[in-house]
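Dear Dr. K.,

Following up on our conversation at the group meeting, I've run the structure prediction for Secreted protein from Paucihalobacter ruber. I'm pasting the input sequence below exactly as I used it, so you can double-check it against your construct before we proceed with anything downstream. Let me know if the numbering doesn't match what you have in your notebook.
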Amino acid sequence: MKTLTFYSILLICLTTQSQDNLPSQQFWSQLQSLCGQSFEGKLMTPENDAQFAGKTLVMHVRSCSDTVIKIPFFVGDDKSRTWVLTYTNGLIELKHDHRHEDGTSDAVTMYGGLASNTGKAGLQMFPADPYTASLIPAAATNVWWIGLKDNEFTYNLKRVDTPRQFTVAFDLTTAVENPGPPWGWTED
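The predicted structure tokens came back this morning:
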């Protein structure tokens, strides 16, 4: 007789209970309600990050389906980053799609992780998956999380075994002009 693993049991439970009652589905629905809108963000930590400090930060909830939400994240004129969220069997996965200006994939792309549980309606956490650990060994202990409130979306990263932490907060009370497509996108 086969022994069921914890994750097998979790998937069975998630697929048999109503998806509408799951915190992950509530989070997903809130995020979908932002589709088509863009919001300006502010770097919270570290305040002096050379790559992000002093630049206009904009997220655009650009593409939404029942199972995939794509959110380009612009840092000044750099349109290389897109957060790709996928909803399957009550769990959300976060991947980072990085592109060059010509639209080709960066060598370091599609890293991230799958939520280990259904989270909360306003908070989803994504520990680094095996692909990420293989692609970026230093990121093996990364945990990303997205906070979602009525007036704020936060994107966060903590490298657990280091002081590295990154947080950017977006004001959801005021939509800004959509910034156009990220690098590599042909449809508008």
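Two things stood out to me. The chain has one domain: 17-175. The helical segments are 6-16, 23-32, 130-135.

Best regards,
J.T.
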